[in-house]
Design brief:
It contains 14 helices and two strands. The protein is mainly alpha-helical. The chain has two domains: about 1-55, no CATH class; about 85-270, no CATH class. A two-stranded antiparallel sheet has the order 1-2. Helix 1 packs across helix 3 and helix 11 (about 205-230) runs antiparallel to helix 12. The radius of gyration is 40 Å and the shape is flat. The two termini are about 75 Å apart. About 20% of the residues are buried.
Length: about 300
Amino acid sequence: MKRTFITLTLVTLLGLPQVKAAEFYDDIDDATRDELIDEQDYETDSIHETAVTREAAPIFTPSLNINPTKTDKKKLPCIYDMPYSISANYPNYRRLAANTGVLIGGGLATLVILDLLPENATNWNKKEEAEVPMAERYFDNVMNGPHWDGDNPVFNYVLHPYAGAAYYMSARSQGFNMWYSALYSFAVSTVFWEYGVEAFMEIPSYQDLIITPLGGWLLGEAFYRAKRYIVEHDYHLLGSKALGYVAAFVCDPVNEFLGYFRGNDAHGWSQRHNVDLVSQFSLSPDGMGGQVPTLSVSLTF
């Protein structure tokens, strides 16, 4: 039986007529011969189907599809994980672009709010604003300035330096060093605000051109130092996490606000800077049949 099965398989694969295979069953009774022929047909169909399937199937070659832009891209360092420096630079341009968008939107909203305030609060000429077209008013204000304004001291010497510090921290917390952050603050306060949206309402002033970026630089770096302290204590201030979050928001409103939506890299500082000191005492062979005491120390940052 075994010899017959092998013979049938070879015959089938060689493609010989099926009637030739029946000659091997001449000496077997009819019932057994029919059963063996049915089995041969099943084996032949299975072998033929497998051969066709394998011939038609494409050759599969395993491949590793690697996207360099995703796998090779390294996470930019958080400046709060680095030692304090006024010159080290770890810029995150993508997040700074988002910050700039928020500052532009916030500036336009501030302009609307200031326009609703009484004229004695902003010194904006409501009558001229209503009668003179915007483009003409902007051109006149730019050409006639800058000048020394008579704005409320709270605006000139409190709110403007704080606004400059917010601009400064928008860049500083995204890895830019002190010099680039000061330049960014100057660009936002001067180009966007003083000679931008506010010039539609009033003549640019010397106080705003000087105090906003300069005060923002000095106050902003103080805010940066204060926020570093808060971050290194996991947003705790005087034992209170709520107070820590409030203080961090005051120091860095743009990044703290956007951190609720895009994630805040400054969170979890202690988990990234945890130091574990493990020591273990044991006895080790000295190679002369004795043992010597051994102390191993492991320091993990």
